[in-house]
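Please predict the structure of the following assembly.
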Amino acid sequence: MTYQPSRRRFVRNLSLGLGGALLSHPLLAACSPREKKLGIALVGLGSYAGGQLAPALQETKNCYLAGIVTGTPAKEKIWADKYNIPQKNIYNYQDFDSIADNPDIDIVYVVLPVFLHKEYTIRAAKAGKHVICEKPMALSVAECDEMISACKQANRLLSIGYRLHFEPFNKEMMRLGQQKVYGPVTAIHSSNGFVYGGTDNSAWRLKKKLAGGGPLMDMGVYVVQGARYVTGEEPLWVKARQEKTRPEFFTEVEETVYWQMAFPGGCIANCKTSYNENASILHADAPKGWFEISPAYGYGGLAGKTSQGPMPFPHITQQAAQMDAFATAVRTSTPSIVPGEEGRKDMKVIEAIYRSLDSGQQEKV
Ligand code: NAD
């Protein structure tokens, strides 16, 4: 038997295709001029903003790169020239709050180290802007709560930079698991990591106060959410242990973490994250079959198969799909698919994993 995506998906893809064809008609295209796109300002012009988000914003249909916030004056001209950003839409960390007076900016996208997520999310909401905040959402659940409540108070939407919720292979894992296509998922194994090379450990990612932790915060967050969206459940408890092969390098944060998560429906997830191994897999077993994606969590080159055969999905620019979906949520005043509450749920699990690393015991989530 060959692998069959759902009929509903097929019909939806067909209608999206037709919709695309209609929108590309010159008369209809004139109805959605560039001015109608929502303006996004990127805060923090590091490797993710420069390497992924700005290029993705050249593909987006509902939003565009309208502004930047940077503490490095040399980057201003480079970005302004490359992306045609007017001087009035360029801010630094001191004058950032005056973004409140700029109608070009609808959405602020916080792409800073984790310890700055809370501050800039709250400042953006207070400036009247909708917010996308990168993962992991914050240093703690308590910070997540402050961010969610500040956005609620300002009546602004808050979204997390969870690109995989918009990615076809991961969406199929959600469908197969949550709809119990092969029966209820009984076991998951998942791993996500990369080799953190070099000898300089001064980067913010290796500082507990700046990153909140090591690979668990950075890469393990995807494993936590992968198991959560395959089961569609919240874990009851976790049990974790860690391993260090380079303790002199990983002085403040973990190097490799293994953990188990138990879900209410009976599924046990065996998980791993590491700064010492290249890995990216999400595999699920159920009574009537199995399904997996590998690579599972990267920006591209994802592949999937089930016990019935390969998954036939196209490659997409995940960040473009994610930002377009948020722009639509803002326009239509509907909740984000990945709101702050979703980031908070992952942080709750991550906190339990750190507690288990400390106690050596099973910890309730
Ligand atoms: P980076 O180090 O390349 O960039 C961070 C930026 O923040 C730099 O431009 C830096 O100058 C600026 N910055 C401002 N104040 C700073 C301070 N006090 N200390 C250090 N830097 C400061 O990091 P990155 O890889 O671009 O990551 C940024 C955020 O994006 C993180 O939250 C990270 O987890 C997230 N991220 C998400 C994905 C994803 O797939 N969603 C991928 C990579 C990174």
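The pocket of nicotinamide-adenine-dinucleotide is lined by residues 44-49, 71, 111-114, 116, 134-135, 161, 163, 204, 218 (CB under 6 Å). The chain is about 35% helix and 20% strand.
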